[in-house]
Amino acid sequence: MKSLLNNLSLCSTYLINLSVLSNARGSSFVLL
């Protein structure tokens, strides 16, 4: 059960990082 929660937190942080990176790319593209 603990490992499952750890995997879920890792997946959530990974998805958040992906969204932040895509947002940064979009804003930088708009600035260009």
Number of strands: 0
- Helix/strand-derived category reads mainly alpha
- Average pLDDT for all residues: 84
**Fraction of residues in β-strands:** under 5%
Helix content: over 70%
Roughly how many Å apart are the termini? 47 Å
Largest sheet: none
**Order of SSEs:** H
Total number of helices: 1
Low-confidence stretches: none
Shape: rod-shaped
- What radius of gyration results from the CA coordinates? 14 Å
Features:
single chain; 32 residues; mainly alpha; 1 helix; rod-shaped
How would you describe this structure to a colleague?
This protein is mainly alpha-helical and 32 residues long. The protein is 94% helix and 0% strand. It is built from 1 helix and no strands. The longest helix is centred in the middle third of the chain and has 30 residues. The model has no long low-confidence stretch (mean pLDDT 84).
What's a concise summary of this model?
The protein is mainly α and 32 residues long. The chain has one helix and no strands.
How do the strands and helices of this protein lay out in sequence?
Blueprint: H1 2-31
